[in-house]
Amino acid sequence: MKNNRIRILYIDDEVHNLNAFMASFRRNYEIYIANSAQEGKQVLKGIDVHIIIADQKMPNTTGVEFFNEIKNVLPDPIRILLTGYTDVEDIIDAINKGHIYSYIKKPWDEQELHRTINNAYEIHAARKQLKEKIIELEKTNDELNRFIYSTSHDLRSPLMSVLGIINLSRLDNSVTDPNGYMNMIEMCVTRLDGFIQKIIEYYRNSRLELEFERIDFNNLIRDCTDTFHHQNTSINFNVEVDQPVEFKGDTFRISVILNNLISNAVKYQKPEEEHPTVNLIVKVEPHKATIRIEDNGIGILSEHLNNIFKMFFRSKNNNKPGSGIGLYIVKEALTKIGGTITVDSRFGEGTQFEITIPNRNEFDS
Amino acid sequence: MNSIPDLRVILIDDNDIDLLLHEKLISLQQLSRTVLSFSNANKALEFLSSNISLPHIPPTVILLDIQMPEMDGFEFLRSFDTYPQKIKSQCSIIMVSSSLDFGDISRTNANPLVVRLLKKPLQSKELKDVIESIFKDRD
Questions:
Q1: Region label for A50, one of left (φ > 0), alpha (ψ between -120 and 50) or beta (otherwise)
Q2: B98, B99, B125: which to substitute to probe chain A, counting the most A Cβ within 10 Å?
Q3: What is the per-residue pLDDT across B116-130, written as a single tens digit (0 to 9) for each?
């Protein structure tokens, strides 16, 4: 088990110190010795040691000078300084310049030195483990990125083929379908695709860097309402945008937030409602934008209000199809951009969401 | 599309079902009488380079998928860009993809060889409009 032993380089100009060290510790550790800083460097070229112990008072190069020289090239070994003099200047230098882990007085106490060596080795092992974990995490990150990419393609592409086949069957009237099965297939596929898109949205939000751009809320809101107007033409959007100052923010995340909230406002309408309405009120100030999304839909049970931002939570008072991920994404995206959200709802009467988003106009230019 | 009687469409897609769908879509809409399908971008490049000996290269619309094994849509574009002007000037490329990846979308939009990026499933009206707009610009 030679490889598991702690490897130590001990540098001292006094040969009898080297011998004494060797005699006391060679049974416990794998020891290399050198009688000058120069010779020490030679040893370090060939051997990957865990701990370096150096005497402070040596001719030519002192221990601190030696540590200071090697610390950039060899940052990993833990450095311990050994000296017979308790010179405050030396200690200060050792800590500030040599980045040493510990300071041992000569003549050394064997027990103390054992403890120090073992503690130093633990630190060395912990740092090494940390480095390995970082590499592992980077790899996982990379895999996750590739996963998102393949989700967006490999999972969606067959679905898009199915939709293409359905379109074609309608174009050439080749399928007799008195019971409307094609429509049902289309609905199911569209729902599945919606869910895949939400997953991609979620990962993109958690991984993409923030990017602050100028945002015109009139345009942004119009883009959103246009999309949803196609889905439910009876819905009435009242849009009020008060934007006297420029606003800068992360377009991707803000549109994800708005799309999800407006989509809910449109989806959770009462079937019998004569005037389904969604009010969108935007107020931009120098430091923040406040957006209210109000609907006169089915509302949320008060006991559910605390849970609506949780992943995969779905309120049971409706039978609408949903993934339970929309509001979770809203919350996550707001956290990313430093925004807040509050909700107020009366069951059977409607729901209001109010979000605030910091204006990055003056901070990041 | 009677105005361009010799228009031909080249389809490049590794998915056979999508090739079939797009072929049918084009013939149903009577967009073109000649449709050539390639499930491998390399084969399509070979075919195009063989066109150099033709006295007249017909106006060509290429529907190009992005994600394909071996050679993907972007690699196809890079190779095609080195082709002689005689071939390039007769070809208009429309990218067709189900990709939602920002990188793919912005790379496609930034490529000067690409006329448009259309999302799958291909809508017949959308395709017709794009092809019409290509040849309207030409006249």
A1: alpha
A2: B98
A3: 999 999 998 999 999
